[in-house]
Design brief:
The complex is a heterodimer. Chain A has one domain (3-163). In chain A, helix 3 (74-92) packs across helix 4. Chain A has helices spanning 23-26, 60-71, 74-92, 113-126, 149-155, and strands at residues 3-6, 9-12, 18-19, 37-40, 45-51, 100-106, 143-147, 161-163. Chain A has five helices and eight strands. Chain B folds into two domains: 1-123 and 232-339, P-loop containing nucleotide triphosphate hydrolases (Rossmann fold, 3-Layer(aba) Sandwich), CATH 3.40.50.300; 132-229, no CATH class. In chain B, a hairpin with a 2-residue loop joins strand 1 and strand 2. Classes of the chains: A alpha/beta, B alpha/beta. At the A-B interface, helix 4 and strand 7 of A face helix 10 of B.
Chain lengths: 164, 339
């Protein structure tokens, strides 16, 4: 099973993922944002973004600053463009034959399910998941979910994440 | 002198319970029917009598309003005759009350330690779930003259609200609190002929036309302005979140924390995640906050209690458990399947 490291995190994949934000293979990271990984399963495409503000290499000030920005929604801007641009890239590559799911890991242990629920709902509104009634005929991403490591491993055991 | 401990034996829902309290903020969480409000009411009764000089058992009857005003109905139900005991402590001071399930009148209760207890006066306020200020006109006279079926906390809160402003200059801390509240309610509270009004640039707005949440903040403004909530006083607040927009919770918790820093002891019951989390996020190093988690023991069915010093230690946390359950179902729906 492929295993990748992203900063201080190790993630297992049940199938080979694409390291999507690699500047060389992506070719457009100068003007488009990109999620960390894309995985094409039999019936769905997973856009995976990993955020690790608790990386031991980060300073305490950096960590606190990041958590504050995450909780007040500032990080959502980055998260939403990563999702939209990654989808657009795949659309232009004519690779959108399956529904897309956007999975965001925020590796902060203290986040409670209530916090994760709040951030998930807000990100859904900002992407947005739903378009104007009667106008949008399809969704560009089916759904998005924000996890911490514990919840990620509980709900996505095949994509197990651990700290190095 | 703050309330330090309570011991209940066969009182209302409790078989046996001993709780110790923070001199700062005490937050009660637990499912419905775990006796949170009962604890607030019994503590409030014990505080109120130091000022009103009412008999403690009589105050319990008025605050709990048992059927037929029979004191014995406050004893936990058993198949055989039984007797309850209430012990409340303020450091070295202790008041003890005891009565049987056959007691009807207040005078049947045995109370000890009352003289010393009442020598140390303690100012207290109980803010009930239902807002009362908009019903104020005529209510107090009706309550004092007629046998109306209202728990006395509703009449008491109006007595506190009607108090005139305190003499002398307003201290810096109180001024700052009043200013914060004025910003939230966009005005000041005035009273005319038993009726409360919000006074601002647009003129006077009667309380019955205000949103219920605003009336609650207006009440808090009055209690700070008239000096009821000063150092050494005790505030009991049952579900401050009711009818208040969650956006105002942060400001409200900030005010409660500031009151605590001024020396007000606070007891509050909540069912709301945001209230708990705001305490967690806004607390400063020296703030004294205890979380009291009440729950029914799965085996015995009796009410038990765990003390937590921080939000994450609260156990069981029914509010967080509910969110965890919703989150799990949300993830399943979002992924369209498990995993």
């Amino acid at each position: 099973m492929p295993v990748f490291t992203e900063g201080n995190l190790r993630i297992n994949f049940p199938i080979q993922p694409v390291k999507f934000d690699d500047p060389t293979s992506h070719g457009l990271t100068n003007c488009m944002k990109a999620v960390d990984f894309i995985v094409e399963e039999d019936d769905r495409i997973l856009l995976i973004e990993l955020k690790d503000p608790e990386d031991p290499k980060s300073s305490q000030v950096e960590k606190s600053k990041w958590i504050k920005k995450f909780l007040n929604g500032e990080i959502d801007e980055d998260l939403k463009y990563k999702c939209r641009d990654s989808f657009l890239y795949k659309w232009a590559s004519d690779q959108i034959g399956k529904p897309f799911y956007y999975l965001v890991l925020v590796a902060i242990d203290s986040l409670t399910p209530a916090d994760l629920l709040g951030r998930t709902d807000e990100l859904k509104r900002k992407l947005p998941i739903e378009g104007p009634t009667g106008i949008w005929q399809r969704k560009f991403v089916n759904s998005c979910t924000v996890f911490n490591i514990q919840e990620w491993n509980k709900h996505l055991p095949a994509y197990h994440i651990s700290r190095i | 002198m703050s309330i330090t401990e309570i011991r209940l034996d066969k009182f209302t829902a409790f078989e046996k319970l001993k709780m110790e309290f923070s001199p700062g903020v005490n937050v009660f969480v637990g499912a419905n029917g775990t006796g949170k409000t009962h604890i607030l009411k019994v503590l409030y009764s014990a505080c109120d009598i130091t000022k009103s000089q009412m008999d403690f058992a009589e105050k319990l009857i008025r605050v709990f309003l048992p059927s037929g005003r029979a004191l014995g109905r406050l004893v936990k139900r058993h198949k055989v005759s039984s007797r309850c005991t209430i012990e409340i402590f303020r450091a070295n001071l202790k008041m003890r009350a005891s009565f049987s399930n056959h007691s009807v009148a207040a005078k049947k209760a045995t109370i000890t330690g009352l003289k010393e207890w009442n020598n140390q006066k303690i100012e207290s306020v109980f803010i009930p779930v239902k807002e009362m200020l908009s019903n104020a006109p005529g209510f107090r006279s009706l309550y004092s003259q007629r046998e109306v079926h209202f728990e006395e906390i509703y009449s008491d809160i109006l007595d506190r609200a009607y108090r005139p402003a305190l003499k002398g200059p307003t201290g810096r801390d109180r001024k700052a609190l009043l200013k914060d509240l004025q910003l939230a309610i966009e005005g000041k509270v005035m009273q005319s002929q038993e009726e409360f009004f919000l006074y601002n640039k647009q003129g006077n707005l009667e309380f019955s036309l205000l949103a219920e949440g605003m009336r609650k903040l207006g009440l808090l403004w009055l209690l700070i302005q008239n000096g009821t909530l000063l150092k050494g006083s005790v505030l009991f607040w049952d579900e401050p979140e009711s009818n208040l927009n969650p956006k105002l919770f942060g400001m409200l918790i900030e005010i409660l924390l500031k009151l605590q820093r001024m020396g007000v002891q606070v007891f509050l019951v909540t069912h709301d995640y945001v209230i708990l989390k705001e305490f967690d996020l806004r607390r400063e190093k020296n703030d004294k906050i205890d979380f009291h988690a009440l729950y029914r023991d799965k085996e015995t069915g009796e009410i038990q209690y765990n003390l937590a010093k921080s939000y994450l230690e609260i156990n069981p946390n029914v509010i967080a458990e509910t969110f965890a359950d919703i989150y799990d179902r949300e993830v399943e729906r979002s992924l369209g399947r498990k995993g």
